[in-house]
Design a protein that fits this description.
The complex is a heterodimer.
Chain A: E1 3-7, E2 10-14, E3 19-26, E4 30-38, E5 45-50, E6 56-59, E7 62-66, E8 70-75, E9 84-92, E10 96-99, E11 103-108
Chain B: E1 4-7, E2 10-13, E3 19-25, E4 31-37, E5 44-49, E6 56-57, E7 64-68, E8 74-78, E9 87-94, E10 103-104, E11 108-112
Parallel strand pairs in B: 2-11
Antiparallel strand pairs in B: 1-3, 3-8, 4-5, 4-9, 5-6, 7-8, 9-10, 9-11
The chains are: A mainly beta, B mainly beta.
């Protein structure tokens, strides 16, 4: 069964304290892996797409990496405005985007 | 560009009532989607439309119907609302099915009493 698991469920960081969020997947036929950010009461906001193992993408303090079994979202020197829920999703086939349940990140000043 | 817009933002229904959630996109995307998001669960696909004139069931289609009105608009209808349909509903669109990134609207928070 296709499955996406995100860990940890929640993460509290001090401002400037770098860390990583994990997205592990067991799917047949990965076509792409997506990272989204979701603020309370808002829709998911696209961050990155990764297509193949070894690929990396960066945006400001965020860096996403992909292996054959998992993806990491590294957050370097986070700020309070990085507080949000981060969602991982895996594209399988043409009509199936499987979402994880997300990691809720809180960054304190 | 507004991206993906949804109306209404909030709605409260009584069991058995019907309503339609509206979604529109101005990105000239071919594919559109309806998801629901419940606490402790990932976003789940209800219905999708690969292109104008086509619709298909997703993971959780029971109790819902959809209409792809034109290339821009994709509506979701609840014919007889049930408390189990209390959720946050998101519409999304992408350039093409299964290839391009999906972009999401702001959501509709629905409560069924």
């Amino acid at each position: 069964e296709d499955q996406v698991t995100q860990s940890p469920e929640a993460l509290r960081l001090q401002e400037g304290e770098s860390s990583s969020l994990n997205c592990s997947y067991t799917v047949s036929g990965l076509r792409g892996l997506f990272w989204y950010r979701q603020d309370p009461g808002k829709g998911p906001e696209f961050l990155f797409t990764l297509y193949s193992a070894g690929e990396e993408k960066e945006k400001e303090r965020l860096k996403a990496t992909l292996t054959k079994k998992e993806s990491f979202l590294h957050i370097t020197a986070p700020k309070p405005e990085d507080s949000a829920t981060y969602l991982c999703a895996v594209q399988v086939g043409t009509d199936k985007l499987i979402f994880g349940t997300g990691t809720r990140l809180q960054v304190f000043p | 560009n507004a991206g993906v817009t949804q109306t209404p933002k909030f709605q409260v229904l009584k069991t058995g009532q019907s309503m339609t959630l509206q979604c529109a996109q101005d990105m000239n995307h071919n594919s559109m989607y309806w998801y629901r998001q419940d606490p402790g669960m990932g976003l789940r696909l209800i219905y999708y439309s690969a292109s104008e004139g086509t619709t298909d069931k997703g993971e959780v289609p029971n109790g819902y119907n959809v209409s792809r009105l034109n290339k821009r608009e994709f509506s979701l209808r609840l014919e007889s609302a049930a408390p189990s349909q209390t959720s946050v509903y998101f519409c999304a669109s992408s350039g093409a099915l299964g290839v391009d990134t999906q972009y999401f609207g702001p959501g509709t928070r629905l409560t069924v009493l």
